[in-house]
Specification:
By secondary structure, this protein is mainly α. It is built from three helices and no strands. It is flat and about 60 Å long. It starts with 16 loop residues before the first helix and ends with a helix. The relative contact order is 0.08.
Length: 70
């Protein structure tokens, strides 16, 4: 096995597909939220989008519980 493996510890835990691929553009939904003035930067957009996904799962669970299982 090779013993010459090195890791860049400065970037630990900060890898995203955009960082790895060298792209600097903001994802579409986050850019739309910033463009509309709903949020101020990309980090806030991530929180909003996660909250939307959680709300969607809760609504789906309630619909299944009340309309499918009863």
């Amino acid at each position: 096995m090779s013993e010459n493996v090195q890791f860049d510890m400065d970037q630990q835990g900060k890898f995203t597909s955009r960082a790895v691929l060298g792209q600097s553009q903001v994802p579409g939904m986050a850019a739309w939220l910033v463009k509309k003035g709903i949020i101020k930067d990309e980090s806030n957009a991530k929180g909003i989008l996660v909250a939307i996904v959680v709300a969607d799962f809760v609504i789906a669970a309630l619909v299944i519980y009340f309309f499918v299982l009863k």
